[in-house]
């Protein structure tokens, strides 16, 4: 008996599943691009700068596309490119994102506009533009959210607000796409090695943003010092890329994939979810007792097995 093994890379263009990744030039987006392309999937890698596009184009199974998620002209041009290539589009990964650290009572409206434009309107624009291709392939849509979409710490308000929005975006989109047999997931990474804080610090310097006169001057300086722009000490985000692959290609994808580098971050996140459940249940007209809550939890656990 002869067994023939065919890798994804040997497949014809019409068989090779294609995925679009936004924000593919660095950090988590680059890792997703590297991992998927290495496994034979074809990746349309979105990036803004020509140097990044040139670098991405040197990779096997990758075609770089100039793509700013804030620019409808570039988004529409990207759709045209994908259509002309004739591969179709099976997967969409909304990864492009930015961060802002600021006290909510001091953050400038223009800074909120900046983060919401990328982190909220970006996935909305990309998903809206590429939805017809995803529906045609009965494919998958995955958005990189964050455990900050569940947690909300001091000075993380603007970022957490944008990621909480992505949690709602995922839930609503998932229900709406069911009729087209399109599966929708969110990935909630913890603290991994990425360029997001480095980009944040660069923007603060370029905009001459200072907290010298802030009511939170000492606390904010302590945060920047402890958090740091250098993320090299943090874990490589391969685990995040692995979760994206599961969301895109597993036979039974989950709605959410929390991916954290250590037990502490898992504990913080799950504890916060449970705390919110208790808060919702307190002092409401139809309050459930402990036994009833445990019964509900057991039922939900059974449904996810």
Automatic annotation (TrEMBL):
Instruction: Report whether Lipid metabolism shows up as a keyword of the record.
Output: no
Entry GO MF terms: oxidoreductase activity
What would be one Pfam family of this protein? Answer: adh_short
Q: Which organism was this protein described from?
A: Algibacter mikhailovii
Recorded hits in InterPro entries, A to Z, give:
NAD(P)-bd_dom_sf, Sc_DH/Rdtase_CS, SDR_fam
Q: Which PROSITE patterns match?
A: ADH_SHORT
Q: Could you identify this protein by its name? A: Short-chain dehydrogenase/reductase
Q: Which UniProt keywords apply?
A: Oxidoreductase
Family that this chain belongs to:
Belongs to the short-chain dehydrogenases/reductases (SDR) family.
Task: Report the domain of life of the source organism.
Answer: Bacteria
